[in-house]
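Progress against Task 2.4 (sequence-to-structure conversion) is shown through the following example record, which the project officer requested during the mid-term review.
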Amino acid sequence: MTMTATASMPLCAKSATKARTSAVTAASATTLPLTPSPMTFQEMRDIDIRSVNPDLLVDIKSVQINTSLSRDERVIDFLEQIKNPYCFKVGKAAVKVSFADTEATVEDCLERYLLSL
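Structure tokens generated for the chain above:
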């Protein structure tokens, strides 16, 4: 499956942050046409949150999920709305999403934590 989306987002400096996404695997190599130049998901993921102007980020509270769309269409629609799924804001707070380079799920980590109490 090939996914494409059109988005625009401010240019931001990149960092060497190592992260892994749980997003659709086929989308990881997809380039979104952006203004002024295309940015891959890896480049979006590597953005340094400290270099981003929060006023230019999309507030996730404004994203509307259309449940009548198929799963793949909802993913594309979400990406079109959020612009960068790794860097957005919630209210006035800028948020950078990243994942540890591990196969452990959130559930695995929570279970391990709770068992350690």
